């Protein structure tokens, strides 16, 4: 699955953000719905997995968060400006323990846009976990809401080959795009090389979805480790 271009901003631990997002225990949700799946422990686990891989250690022990099956994405960013360092996920529902273990490493080492994450980068990382839910078929390419929905499109390229591409919900808002700009960018991301016309947009199939998301920084991870030792 192609990875979306996304850098997710770190959220404060509780309260309500300026755009109406509900923030609870570092977890964000939209539309006034309290998240029920994601938990900061998922981010700590991804850091454990990555540390074990970087230092060739045994995998971490089985985590304690829920092990339901959901589509998911893992995003690594680096530095204070949260530059994207890797983001890969799956639209196939996976048990969360296995899915996060797999994509914590896949997004860190196998995103073709970047070199693999190195040991010296580890202390500057932030990980974002996105659990995808509430999938719905769009009536047309405009049947989705900016900032609320992620979108998955299916289309035929100039050679008639079927292609897919996705953006998570935050991408369009962070880039300052409207719906048309988002669709056109996503077509190009998916490999469409021709001119994007209204007919091309009308011909694509769109599926919208929502995310439950949590962000954990290296500093928060280390605080968690210190607390484990108490």
Automatic annotation (TrEMBL):
It comes from the Eukaryota. InterPro entries: AMMECR1, AMMECR1_dom_sf, AMMECR1_domain, AMMECR1_N. Residues 31-225 form the AMMECR1 domain. Pfam families: AMMECR1. Gene3D superfamilies: Hypothetical protein ph0010, domain 1, Hypothetical protein ph0010, domain 2. NCBIfam families: TIGR00296 family protein. This is AMMECR1 domain-containing protein.
């Amino acid at each position: 699955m192609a990875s979306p271009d996304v850098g997710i901003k770190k959220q404060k631990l509780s309260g309500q953000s300026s755009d109406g997002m509900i923030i609870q225990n570092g977890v964000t949700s939209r539309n006034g719905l309290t998240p029920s799946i994601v938990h900061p422990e998922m981010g700590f686990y991804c850091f454990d997995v990555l540390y074990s891989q970087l230092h060739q250690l045994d995998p971490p022990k089985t985590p304690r968060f829920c092990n339901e099956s959901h589509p998911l994405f893992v995003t690594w960013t680096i530095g204070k400006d949260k530059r994207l360092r890797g983001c890969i996920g799956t639209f196939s529902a996976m048990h969360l323990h296995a899915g996060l273990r797999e994509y914590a490493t896949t997004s860190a080492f196998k995103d073709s846009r970047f070199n693999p994450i190195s040991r010296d980068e580890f202390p500057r990382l932030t990980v974002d976990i996105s659990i995808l839910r509430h999938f719905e078929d769009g009536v047309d390419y405009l049947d989705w809401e900016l900032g609320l929905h992620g979108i998955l499109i299916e289309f035929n390229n100039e050679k008639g080959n079927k292609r897919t591409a996705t953006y998570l919900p935050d991408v369009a808002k962070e880039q300052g795009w409207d719906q048309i700009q988002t669709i056109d960018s996503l077509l190009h991301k998916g490999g469409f090389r021709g001119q994007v016309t209204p007919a091309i947009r009308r011909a694509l199939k769109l599926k919208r979805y929502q995310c439950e998301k949590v962000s954990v920084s290296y500093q928060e991870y280390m605080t968690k480790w210190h607390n484990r030792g108490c």
